[in-house]
Amino acid sequence: MGLADIAAGIEVTAEQDARGVPTVDDTGVDLRERFDAHAESLPCDPDAAATVFDAYAGGASVGESAHEAGVAPMTAAKTLHRCGVTGVTPLSPTAREILRDWLDGELPRTEARTLTGASKTEFALAAYVETHDPVEELADATAGELTPGTNATVAKRDALAETMSDASEFF
């Protein structure tokens, strides 16, 4: 029994709606103005923060984003964290638990640094991330900017489109 025999008699009676995640910003306020509104929560001035974010959203690394904005890479990483970018912390989950133990006063700093294996800079950035939450309004405002237009699976499917059969021919 082949696929054509299995599919015999099956009819498509409805069409599937293409669903996606729409990005709608009806506030009329651009990203730089939103950064201005939360200047006190950012580790650098709003113009530099917007430049860091725009460069990062465009595919630049944290270091490249910092260079473009004229700020230190640590400041750029802090800015991205405050904007809701995940993965800025340089520590693993276990090392973050050790950092939290230090923050809670259960470990001396030198012991915590030794146990995490982090450099002074990495430890300082991780401490900032643990002690400063993302600014909800900035995270909401920037969320759509970091959503990739595609993912690896879709990119592979599109690249191999010519080699795939059209499933509708079997139905």
Tell me the layout of helices and strands.
Elements: H1 3-7, H2 31-37, H3 46-57, H4 62-69, H5 73-82, H6 93-103, H7 109-116, H8 120-131, H9 136-142, H10 152-159
Helix pairs in contact: 2-3, 3-4, 4-5, 5-8, 6-7, 6-8
Structural overview:
The chain has 171 residues and is mostly helical. The chain is 51% helix and 0% strand. It is built from 10 helices and no strands. The chain has helices spanning 3-7, 31-37, 46-57, 62-69, 73-82, 93-103, 109-116, 120-131, 136-142, 152-159. The protein is extended. Mean pLDDT is 82; it is low at 20-26.
**Element string (H = helix, E = strand):** HHHHHHHHHH
Q: What is the count of β-strands?
A: 0
Please tell me what the overall shape is: extended
Report the mean per-residue pLDDT as an integer: 82
Helical residues, percent: 40-55%
Rg from alpha-carbon coordinates? 23 Å
Question: Main sheet, how many strands, which sense, barrel?
Answer: none
Low-confidence spans: pLDDT under 50, at least 5 residues?
A: 20-26
The N- and C-terminal alpha carbons lie at a distance of 15 Å
Strand content: under 5%
Structural class: mainly alpha
Count of separate DSSP helical elements: 10
